């Protein structure tokens, strides 16, 4: 199965919101099916696919803290949320005949495999999508950082930050009609101009390990597929 993409192995970061129903909250099975379809498209390019799921549709540690909770406990709850999302995506993928496994950074052996790097790589080599859940396994981190970390560990060729916007703009396109999209950016330019791509921990990890970041609209037509086939007219690539 020859790859139709310049990328051999990709890591897709999906926010929990993508799975949410009304207002981006909870788990909507129809959204899960849609996301699985998109992941399947990428998979069918012949690319090895790993996915990091966020959990913001269910819980965010920072919100718990604002309500007076201990932050570490609140973050533990958040990480558990990402496991719920990961299981949802695995189920949706399997129902579309895409073999998939969930590996979690927080051990819960009855529910998902523990994160084992070489086993994750083996799964992908065998044509299985690997879903990394549980974030980094540590409080005070984000799933963006988990994406950067796992991408580095599994030697992914690119991190795909799936969003609802078409890429990185020089201003907020929702507020400023003159805002234009960058097709390409350097890590340096992103830092200098304080452009919002990923949180700083995640971004720095990608920069230090020379992992390109592709910001692309996950929802719009076949933007994701085109970007993964090297089409620079969609999304923004940061190198
Ligand atoms: N979280 C954490 N450590 C991690 C990743 C996530 O503690 O390594 C917790 C944190 O509380 C966060 C929540 O899980 O608010 C959900 O993750 P995130 O906000 O990154 O999800 P997303 O915004 O991508 O949906």
User: How would you name the CATH homologous superfamily?
Assistant: Acetylglutamate kinase-like
Number of domains: 1
**Major sheet description:** 9 strands, mixed
Strand order of the largest sheet: 4-3-5-2-1-6-8-9-7
Strand content: 15-25%
Class from helix and strand fractions: alpha/beta
CATH architecture type: 3-Layer(aba) Sandwich
Roughly what is the average pLDDT, rounded to an integer?
96
Can you count the beta strands?
9
Q: Write down the CATH topology.
A: Carbamate kinase
Provide the helix percentage: 25-40%
Low-confidence segments, given as residue ranges, are: none
Tally of individual helices? 8
Associated small molecules: uridine-5'-diphosphate
Radius of gyration: 17 Å
Note the overall shape: globular
Amino- and carboxy-terminal Cα gap: 28 Å
Tell me the series of helices and strands, N- to C-terminal. EHEHHEEHEHEEHHEHE
CATH class placement: Alpha Beta
């Amino acid at each position: 199965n020859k790859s139709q993409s310049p990328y051999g192995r990709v890591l897709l970061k999906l926010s929990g919101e993508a799975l949410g129903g009304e207002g981006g909250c909870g788990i909507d099975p129809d959204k899960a099916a849609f996301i699985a379809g998109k992941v399947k498209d990428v998979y069918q390019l012949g690319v090895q696919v790993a996915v990091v799921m966020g959990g913001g549709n269910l819980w965010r540690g920072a919100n718990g803290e604002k309500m007076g909770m201990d932050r570490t406990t609140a973050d533990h709850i958040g990480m558990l949320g990402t496991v719920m999302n990961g299981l949802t995506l695995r189920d949706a993928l399997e129902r579309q005949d895409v073999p998939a496994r969930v590996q979690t950074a927080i051990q819960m052996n009855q529910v998902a495999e523990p994160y084992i790097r070489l086993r994750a790589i083996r799964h992908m080599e065998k044509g299985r999508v690997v879903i990394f859940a549980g974030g980094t396994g540590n409080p005070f981190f984000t799933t963006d950082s988990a994406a950067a970390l796992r991408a580095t560990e599994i030697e992914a060729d690119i991190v795909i930050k799936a969003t609802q916007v078409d890429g990185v703009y020089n201003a907020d396109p929702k507020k400023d009609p003159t805002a234009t999209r960058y097709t390409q950016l350097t890590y340096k330019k992103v830092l200098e101009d304080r452009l919002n791509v990923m949180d700083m921990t995640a971004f720095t990890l990608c920069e230090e390990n020379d992992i390109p970041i592709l910001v692309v609209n996950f929802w719009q037509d076949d933007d994701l597929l085109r970007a993964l086939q090297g089409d620079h007219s969609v999304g923004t690539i940061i190198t």
